[in-house]
Design goal:
- The chain is of the alpha/beta class.
- Helices cover 36% and strands 27% of the residues.
- The protein has helices spanning 45-52, 74-80, 96-106, 111-125, 140-151, 170-185, 220-227, 232-240, and strands at residues 5-16, 19-30, 34-38, 60-65, 68-69, 81-84, 158-162, 189-194, 205-210, 213-218.
Length: 241
């Protein structure tokens, strides 16, 4: 494993009874990379992500996340990563600032540092005037951006995003990807699952899953060349066929 490798997966298998959700997955993810994990719903993306986050144990395989063994150090891994699930990870009956303070405390950040980080993030998001607004009163797009900011509040080595742009309009999706670029620019590795094929174009590399297996893994441009098509959507159609 090179110094630049932040996630190393070898022969990952995850079974639920007789059902194989992840079938012998092998891939590496590099520091500061935006790594797209693509596939239709039920392809096995979320299962693999949950294992890498230390939320579920693999059936077999070797997995290292930020230098830590998934089998032995799952609790330590949770402290070093950020995670944003499909369902928003914000408390709707609390204000914007209260959510940030809560998560800062969970991540073990000092009160002084929480104040600094909260001010920074509110400034970056242009939400200074909304800091005392309840999450439930914010538009969906703002909630999504805020959920991402909370996931990277403690400046983790890796942030895992599980279908983060589901159910929002194209403009908001594009703005959300601007936040992802900013995080990667700061050296945070972004591991993102999506079933929107146009979002594959925004990733440094993509791994395409189908029925629990990896069926393609490369830079979007190289995959388009390989399949002789103009878009990642067409790549996916060719692979699915």
């Amino acid at each position: 494993m090179s110094d630049n490798t932040v996630i190393s997966v070898k022969n990952l298998v995850k079974k639920f009874g007789n059902f194989v959700a992840n079938d012998n997955l092998t891939f590496d993810v590099y520091r500061g990379e935006i790594f797209g994990f693509l596939g239709a719903n039920g392809a096995g993306k979320t299962t693999a992500m949950r294992i890498l986050c230390g939320l579920s144990l693999p059936t077999s395989g070797e997995l290292i996340v930020d230098g830590l063994d998934v089998y032995k150090k799952s609790e330590e891994i949770k402290k070093r990563i950020g995670y944003m699930s499909q369902k928003f990870s914000l408390y709707e009956d609390m204000t914007v600032a209260e959510n940030m303070r809560l998560y800062g405390g969970i991540y073990g950040i000092s009160d002084a540092q929480i104040k600094i980080r909260t001010a920074e993030l509110l400034g970056e998001l242009g939400l200074q005037d909304q800091k005392d607004t309840l999450i439930s009163d914010l538009p969906l797009g703002w909630r999504q951006k805020l959920a991402f900011s909370v996931a990277v509040f403690h400046q983790p080595a890796i942030v895992f995003l599980d279908e983060p742009t589901g159910g929002v309009d194209p403009i908001t999706r594009r703005q959300f990807w601007d936040l992802i670029y900013q995080a990667a620019h700061k050296g945070i590795t972004v591991f993102v699952t999506t079933h929107y094929m146009d979002e594959a174009e925004y990733c440094d590399r993509v791994c395409i899953m189908n029925e629990g297996k990896i069926v393609a893994l490369d830079k979007p441009m190289l995959l388009k060349e390989q399949y002789g098509v103009d878009s990642m959507n067409e790549v996916f159609v060719k692979i699915a066929r």
